[in-house]
């Protein structure tokens, strides 16, 4: 990329997320379509659509054949029906997260969260106020969770157990995979009230009666109170968002809920294995510089402080995630 192309890279990503929101990848994935046909189906201004499609051609996402446009196979994950769709991840990164990066200068100057500087409130408060951004966020988390969940269920033996709580489990992607592989289990997603309402509504609309009978959503605040008495507590991609003090508070709330002697906490985090130059900066833009990058050494110290013993660790193949199985120290 030359200097001008680099300067315009945000325009490319916005063009792609706009196309995703319009449903263009779905329309041109199986067969090329002509501009007029697309404009009629989408009910948009044909001249502006031509410009957008040319931008996508220039980005290498779409190929043009005469008057027709088609999605390049390399970008099939922008389709909504792709088994590994990343359309919401793309939209989240290109829109809400990119907006937050407008606060980068503030973060570099002060160490404070650029996200909060731009939106006036932290991430999860902002998501309470912006239903569209929140839906995209939940769906993006589910898209990112699916491959990790598939690897996780191959790793952990749930036989002989009956209940699992996923703390901060979002729309339930991880639990769907766990319950799918373990028909004897029931699961509860413990997340913010609005996330639970959306998750429960999506589950009801799915019409999957077996899953509806075994998966439920419990509006919770993981700083205060969680469903108690379960066999397993899952905690995936939660701790890395918070300061060390908040991480310990979350872990202590979980420990309080683990009333069964054989209960286990299964932490799944994309632990840093070496300090990458930019990972602490991205963390600071989203959360502020008092949220340190999480590596295994730090996580073990926090678990210890919250009263957990680490019983085993495993790196989940073909993912960035490490699994730590923990029990509450009872002395
Ligand atoms: C980064 S997302 C991870 C979601 C999911 N565990 C996954 O890996 O896909 C963090 C989750 O924590 C939830 N969360 C944030 N604050 C919370 C709180 N105070 N109580 C419960 N859940 C909370 C968010 O709503 C979100 O679903």
From TrEMBL:
One of its GO terms (biological process) is methylation. Residues 101-284 form the O-methyltransferase C-terminal domain. Residues 6-65 form the O-methyltransferase dimerisation domain. Keywords: Methyltransferase, S-adenosyl-L-methionine, Transferase. SUPFAM superfamilies: S-adenosyl-L-methionine-dependent methyltransferases, Winged helix' DNA-binding domain. The keyword Methyltransferase applies. It comes from Saccharopolyspora hirsuta. This is Hydroxyneurosporene methyltransferase. GO terms for molecular function: O-methyltransferase activity; protein dimerization activity. InterPro entries: COMT-like, COMT_C, COMT_dimerisation, SAM-dependent_MTases_sf, WH-like_DNA-bd_sf, WH_DNA-bd_sf.
């Amino acid at each position: 990329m030359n200097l001008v192309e680099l300067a315009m890279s945000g325009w490319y990503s916005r063009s792609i997320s706009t196309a995703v929101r319009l449903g263009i990848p779905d329309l041109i994935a199986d067969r090329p379509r002509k501009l007029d046909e697309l404009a009629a189906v989408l009910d948009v201004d044909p001249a502006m659509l031509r410009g957008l499609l040319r931008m996508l051609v220039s980005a290498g996402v779409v190929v043009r054949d005469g008057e027709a446009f088609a999605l390049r196979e390399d970008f099939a994950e922008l389709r909504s029906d792709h088994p590994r769709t990343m359309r919401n991840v793309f939209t989240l990164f290109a829109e809400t997260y990119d907006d937050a990066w407008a606060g980068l200068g503030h973060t570099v100057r002060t160490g404070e969260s650029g996200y909060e500087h731009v939106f006036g409130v932290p991430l999860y408060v902002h998501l309470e106020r912006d239903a569209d951004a929140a839906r995209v966020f939940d769906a993006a988390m589910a898209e990112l969770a699916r491959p990790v969940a598939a690897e996780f269920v191959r790793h952990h033996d749930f036989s002989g157990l009956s209940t699992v709580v996923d703390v901060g489990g979002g729309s339930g992607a991880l639990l769907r995979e766990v319950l799918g592989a373990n028909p004897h289990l029931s699961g509860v997603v413990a997340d913010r009230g609005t996330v639970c309402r959306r998750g429960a509504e999506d589950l009801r609309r799915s019409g999957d009666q077996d899953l509806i009978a075994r998966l439920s959503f419990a509006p919770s605040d993981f700083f205060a109170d969680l469903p108690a008495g379960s066999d397993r507590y899952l905690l995936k991609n939660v701790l890395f968002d918070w300061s060390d003090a908040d991480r310990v508070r979350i872990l202590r709330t979980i420990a309080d809920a683990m009333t069964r002697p054989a209960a286990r906490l299964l932490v799944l985090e994309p632990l840093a294995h070496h300090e990458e130059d930019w990972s602490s900066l991205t963390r600071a833009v989203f959360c502020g510089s008092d949220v340190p990058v999480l590596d295994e050494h730090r996580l073990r110290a926090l678990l210890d402080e919250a009263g957990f013993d680490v019983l085993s660790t495993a790196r989940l193949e073909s993912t960035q995630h490490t699994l730590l199985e923990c029990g509450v120290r009872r002395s």
